[in-house]
Write a structure and sequence with these properties.
The protein contains 4 helices and 23 strands. It is mainly β and 406 residues long.
Length: 406
Amino acid sequence: MGGSVEHSWGWGHCAPSPLLLLTLLLFAAPFGLLGEKTRQVSLEVIPNWLGPVQNLLHIRAVGTNSTLHYMWSSLGPLAVVLVATNTPHSTLSVNWSRLLSPEPDGGLMVLPKDSIQFSSALVFTRLLEFDSTNVSDTAAKPPGTPYPPYSLADFSWNNITDSLDPATLSATFQGHPMNDPTRTFANGSLAFRVQAFSRSSRPAQPPRLLHTADTCQLEVALVGASPRGNRSLFGLEVATLGQGPDCPSMQEQHSIDDEYAPAVFQLDQLLWGSLPSGFAQWRPVAYSQKPGGRESALPCQASPLHPVLAYPLPQSPIVRAFFGSQNNFCAFNLTFGASTGPGYWDQHYLSWSMLLGVGFPPVDGLSPLVLGIMAVALGAPGLMLLVGGLVLLLYHKKYSEYQSIN
């Protein structure tokens, strides 16, 4: 059985600035984003009428002139297919018999096909673990001796329908290895929580990524699993579709403001093509406690994107069903923590968040605290000049007044 929930939203108090509107007028037309003030968002677990329940979550965000589709699934390794169309009437078509076959090509489509303006995918292929016991260089790559990775294609996952939450527009994929002879996951799990949003805002907990109507958030949490070493560091291998022979680009943005994520002045972005297109965005920080804070912050290192040639990646049926078999993949690793400082070993907990969306990535403005400091710093000299000018004006006026003769 499938379940669905719906919300709608507008710009509210986050009205775009004239500069942003001009930017959208110039660049956003190819994505049908012009005039979009509200979207209607639905989450639906697509039912499989041919057999057992399969985990295929469809997030659909409909605007006046466009639709965003996010298809999340734990068939094979956990993966998401992201599609943007220039019509509010585009729909998802699923052929379950083909999708579940050894040749799933064509089993997943967004129709009409000629409305598609952008499409790509992310696949979370492996959970990595490193022994950092004898590593003193925190910038070492790899960050320690690698243990055999956990393939997420060999995980057993919960029924996603049971975790569908209408109040928060979220659902959670929670899994553990099907074959676990050492019982490292006897009391643990790896969870991927997916959340859509009804308006532009920020979560209450760090890293407080700014989300918009064109994004959804993924929070990854490793909880309770027994590490294979005393100072184990964990990571994720992530694969995405290449653009012809090239890989997508990775960018870093820096800021003077760290109010939303204390001691973190950087924002990392994965960009598919020139803007506006698809993007993934995250802060290079993870947390070893819940809720996260400065004391439990762990550095998050991203390796450069590289074409996958030396070894086969675990295959995602939904990615092959939508894009076919002739695709070039690129991959990168995310590693969380360092050999010194806090780590997963403290409380057997690790969390990390990212945004996935289409259009222009959200841009952090300066926080009210920083704006206040700047206003005081810049306003004090101006106030002194103003007061000094008034004093001089009054002084000059006092001694230059003409006294009439009676």
